[in-house]
Amino acid sequence: MGTLKTKLKLLLLARNGVKRAEILKKDKVFYHMGEHCYWHPWNIPNETYLLNIHNNVAVAANVTFLTHDVMDWMFNYSGGGTSLSNMSEASKSLIIAS
């Protein structure tokens, strides 16, 4: 495994979303990344260990994953008892676009 700087250069050089997804999967950037994925964004979420991406998931450009924000706190303490803590999971055969 190379340094983080080397990995980022490889990711930036990969102009194809399929190739970028393969690099992210190979380097185990996310908690899990399934087969046949497409990663178009140039940015990587802060807490990548919280993202579980299944098979056949395409993530379009300008998509931002909010793995940790105030919404979880808001729902947990609003009296509704609903938690968003397990919602950072992209299901099978899914297209995520902004």
What do these coordinates show?
- The chain has about 100 residues and is of the alpha/beta class.
- It has helices at about 5-15, 15-25, 70-75; strands spanning about 30-35, 40, 50-55, 55-60, 90, 95.
- Strands 1-3-5 form a three-stranded parallel β-sheet. A three-stranded parallel β-sheet has the order 2-4-6.
- The longest helix has 10 residues, at about 5-15.
- The radius of gyration is 15 Å and the shape is globular.
- The mean pLDDT is about 75.
How is the topology of this model organized?
Elements: H1 4-13, H2 17-26, E1 32-33, E2 38-39, E3 52-53, E4 57-59, H3 70-76, E5 89-90, E6 94-96
Parallel strand pairs: 1-3, 2-4, 3-5, 4-6
Helix pairs in contact: 1-2
What is the number of strand segments? 6
> Approximately what portion of the residues adopt beta-strand conformation?
5-15%
> Residue-averaged pLDDT, rounded?
76
- Structural shape: globular
The helix fraction, in percent, is 25-40%
**SS-derived structural category:** alpha/beta
Strand order of the largest sheet: 1-3-5
Terminal CA distance? 33 Å
Radius of gyration: 15 Å
Helix and strand string, N-terminal first? HHEEEEHEE
- Poorly predicted parts: none
The biggest sheet amounts to: 3 strands, parallel
Total of DSSP H or I helical runs spanning 4+ residues: 3
Task: Please outline what is shown here.
The chain is of the alpha/beta class. The protein is built from three helices and six strands. Helix content is 28%, strand content 14%.
